[in-house]
Amino acid sequence: MMGPLLVGIYVFVLACFVGFEIITKIPPTLHTPLMSGANAISGITLVGSLAAASSGELAMSSVLAFVAIIFATINVVGGFLVTDRMLGMFGKKRVKS
Fold first, then answer.
1. Which of 5, 69, 89, 91 has its CA 20 to 30 A from that of 12?
2. Rounded average pLDDT over 11-38
3. Closest among 79, 94, 4 to 39, alpha carbons compared
């Protein structure tokens, strides 16, 4: 039988392949709504990592939760900046005076 590590690697490789195939087939007009959805998912990750950090059970889980908070915050802020810039591309052109 396959061990848990081998199953995890198998699922990871399949997820990478499927994710790549899906991402490459998305038209540019759908990137903004998908980025907004990704921001929502990252927000959920941020809330979950905050809950894990506040549990205070083990020192290692608190460290990993802190790292997750940092990465999720970077992802949320960066995603909103990219979404804002993409939405600005669809707006009216401003005339410089």
1. 69
2. 80
3. 79
